[in-house]
């Protein structure tokens, strides 16, 4: 059995250098996740993070505790935390996709106290669907070059990095 979790959080990095710092963070995280047999996907929308992680119970718990303590983000809201047999994102230790206004708005909803019940459930499903969409786009070779700044959240598209 594998544990998986999905959370959203707000970015605390300075706007001008956030994108570069996130690329750096992802490079380190990929190596570490591979060692822990954790896979998943991270979205950095410019304002928010959304991350799905899955792996062996103990490893995931240790990693998630570390992530929760990380000062580079805050207001962590766990949307899903459960167990499953098979991986949702088996091919990458950490897939990454960046700035999108659409995704930014979508993640922003989770910080609105009014989002509850069925509506919240639907929004969680849509977020997962976006994450699957970026996986498929990478698999199809629909990649765009990475950007070096994060002020481009007006760019209404996913920026996809090459596979790990
Ligand atoms: C949004 C976000 C997502 C992160 N995701 C991962 C991850 O998937 N794997 C990982 O090893 N570290 C991740 N980190 C970094 C960890 O929080 C931590 O800095 C790193 O694991 C090194 O921890 P240590 O300094 O205690 O060894 C993430 C950080 C942030 C802010």
UniProtKB/TrEMBL annotation:
Gene3D superfamilies: 3.30.70.100. Transmembrane segments: none annotated. This is BLUF domain-containing protein. It holds the Pfam family BLUF. Residues 2-95 form the BLUF domain. The lineage of its organism: Bacteria, Pseudomonadati, Pseudomonadota, Alphaproteobacteria, Sphingomonadales.
């Amino acid at each position: 059995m594998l544990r998986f979790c999905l959370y959203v959080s707000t970015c605390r990095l300075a706007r001008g250098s956030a994108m570069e710092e996130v690329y750096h963070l992802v490079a380190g995280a990929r190596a570490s996740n591979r060692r822990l047999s954790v896979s998943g996907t991270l979205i950095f929308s410019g304002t928010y993070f959304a991350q799905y992680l899955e792996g062996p119970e103990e490893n995931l718990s240790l990693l998630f505790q570390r992530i929760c303590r990380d000062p580079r983000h805050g207001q962590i809201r766990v949307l899903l935390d459960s167990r499953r047999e098979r991986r949702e994102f088996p091919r990458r230790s950490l897939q990454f996709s960046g700035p999108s206004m659409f995704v930014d708005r979508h993640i922003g909803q989770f910080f609105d106290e009014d989002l509850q019940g069925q509506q919240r459930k639907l929004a969680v499903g849509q977020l997962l669907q976006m994450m699957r969409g970026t996986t498929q786009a990478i698999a199809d070779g629909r990649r765009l070059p990475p950007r070096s700044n994060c002020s481009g959240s007006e760019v209404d598209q996913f920026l996809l990095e090459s596979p790990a």
